[in-house]
Amino acid sequence: xxxxxxxxxxxxxxxxxxxxxxxxxxxxxxxxxxxxxxxxxxxxxxxxxxxxxxxxxxxxxxxxxxxxxxxxxxxxxxxxxxxxxxxxxxxxxxxxxxxxxxxxxxxxxxxxxxxxxxxxxxxxxxxxxxxxxxxxxxxxxxxxxxxxxxxxxxxxxxxxxxxxxxxxxxxxxxxxxxxxxxxxxxxxxxxxxxxxxxxxxxxxxxxxxxxxxxxxxxxxxxxxxxxxxxxxxxxxxxxxxxxxxxxxxxxxxxxxxxxxxxxxxxxxxxxxxxxxxxxxxxxxxxxxxxxxxxxxxxxxxxxxxxxxxxxxxxxxxxxxxxxxxxxxxxxxxxxxxxxxxxxxxxxxxxxxxxxxxxxxxxxxxxxxxxxxxxxxxxxxxxxxxxxxxxxxxxxxxxxxxxxxxxxxxxxxxxxxxxxxxxxxxxxxxxxxxxxxxxxxxxxxxxxxxxxxxxxxxxxxxxxxxxxxxxxxxxxxxxxxxxxxxxxxxxxxxxxxxxxxxxxxxxxxxxxxxxxxxxxxxxxxxxxxxxxxxxxxxxxxxxxxxxxxxxxxxxxxxxxxxxxxxxxxxxxxxxxxxxxxxxxxxxxxxxxxxxxxxxxxxxxxxxxxxxxxxxxxxxxxxxxxxxxxxxxxxxxxxxxxxxxxxxxxxxxxxxxxxxxxxxx
Length: 663
What we know:
By secondary structure, this protein is mainly beta. The chain is 4% helix and 35% strand. The chain is rod-shaped and about 215 Å long. It starts with 16 loop residues before the first helix and ends in a 36-residue tail after the last helix.
C-alpha cells in the first residue's frame, strides 16, 4: 500500500464532491485507526480475495477516487445513493440491504420506492405508513429549511406540532406568515388568507383587496357555549338578511332539531319553507302534531293578514289581557268574523256585534235561520237519561221537556215551574180550577188564564198582593196615543174589558163611550168653606128616560114679554120638551106664550118687568140615544140570580155578592 503524499485536513476539497465526502470519511477512519502516518499516502482498498475495491490517489490539493464496478455500485452519485458491501446507503444512512435495492428507482433527479406494498421507516424498523418517522428525543422529527439566512422552516417537532415559518410551534399547526388556499387564484397573490387583529376577522385577498370571511373571531365562547353578538350568520348565503339566514336549494331539510327519544318529535324547516313541529312531514306552512300553547302579555298572539296590502292591519287578531283574565279575538277591519265548514260560511259575528247562525246578515244580537224542517234551530239537553231538552224547532215552536213542541210554547215537565227574579211561576191544574200560569210567593200571587171549574168564568189575569199595587203600569211619554192599560172584550153583556171589585179612583177625565151604570152618583170636590179638611158631595139627578135639564132666569119687558134663547143644538139633541116657570119678587102670573121653536121660546107675564125663573127638560134624541135607550127593568143573568150587587144593604152575606167567586 503506497503512502499518501499529501492530505491537508479532513476538509480537503476534491473535484467530485460526493467522492470527496467518501474520501474524507475514509481518511478520518484511517487517521483514527493508524494515526497521522496515513497522511500524504495513496490508499488502495482490497477485499479478502485481494481484489481492488477502491483506490485513492494523492494529487496535491485535490485527490481522486476510483471505484471498481464489480464491487462498488454508485446508484446515484448526484443524490448520494450507494450500494456498498451488500448494503444500500442514502448519504451516510443505511436504508436497506443490497437485495432490496431493486425496490428503489432513479428517475433524474428523483429517487423513489417502486414497491407499493412496503413502507419506509425513519427511526423505526416497523413503519406503519408509507413514511413513518419515530423521534424519541427532543430533536425535530422532520424539518425542511430554505437556503435563506432568515430561516422559515417547515418542521414537525417531537410532540407532533407542525410549524410553518417557526421552529417552536405551540399548537398542532402554527403558521407564521401568510398562507394560501384554493386552486382557482389567477395571480400569485390571490387566495392568500390572513387574520386581521384589528377587526378580529379572517380575511382573504382576491388580488385587489382583502375581504372578510365573516364571523371569525366574532364567535365568542362562554363555558361550553359559543355566541355571536354582531352581524348576521348566513348558511347557504354570503349576504344574510337576518341574524340567522338559511338558503336551501336542494330537497333536504333546511333546518332540523331532534330529541334523543326513539319516538322522534323534531322541529323541521323543509327546503320549501314548510315548518313541522312534532313531525318530519309538514303538510302545510305550519304543521303541528301535539299540543299548542300560546302566551302573550297584552299583545297579539294570533294574527291573520291580507298579504296583498302592505302594512295592512291584521284581519283577525287574538290576544290576552295583562291580567290573563280575558282572551280577545278581534277583526281589525270593518268586517265580521266568519265561521264555516265544507267551504261554506255557517256562522258570522258581524261588525255590529250581531251573531248570525244560518244567515250572514243577522238582524238581531242572535239571529238563527234554520232552512231544514227536520233539524231544530236551537237545543239544550241535560246529561241525564230522562232527557228534558229546551228546544226551538225549525218552525219556531219552543219546547221544554219535549223534543216535539206542538205549540208556540209547549211545556211538558212537572211540576211545570218557572222562576224569574226570585218569583215562582207554575203551570198546573187543581181539582177546583184550572190555571194556565200562576206566579206567587208567600204573600203575593197572580194567575193568568184562570178557569173556575164547573163555572163558565175564565179570567185572563188575576193578581193579589198585600202591598200598594196589584198591578202598576206607566205608559211612558213616547207616541201620539199612550195607554197605561188597554183591555178589550166582546160586546156581549157578560163580557167585561175590566172588572173592579172595590173602590176605584180615576184621577183625570173618565171617558165612557157606552152606558155608565152605577148604584149612585155624585160629584166630589174640596169643600168650598173648608177645602183643606173636608170634601163636598152632591148626588146626580137621575131619570129613567135619559132626560136633559136646562134652566135660567129672565125678566119680562114693559109689555110683559121675554124671549129665552136655548143652545143652537137644543132641538137636534132633545125631544118631548117640558116647561116650568116661577115668578120672583111679587105676585104675578106667568105663562109660556110660545113653545120652543128654532131653539127659543117666549114667556108672558100679566105685569111688566117681572123676573121669572124658568126650567126646560128634554129627552135625549141623538143617534146613540135612539139606539141605546135605557132598559129600566132587567132580569139578572142566570149565573147572577140569587146574588146581590149590594148584599150588605139587604143584610145578606158578602158571599152572595155578584162576582164573589172570582176573588
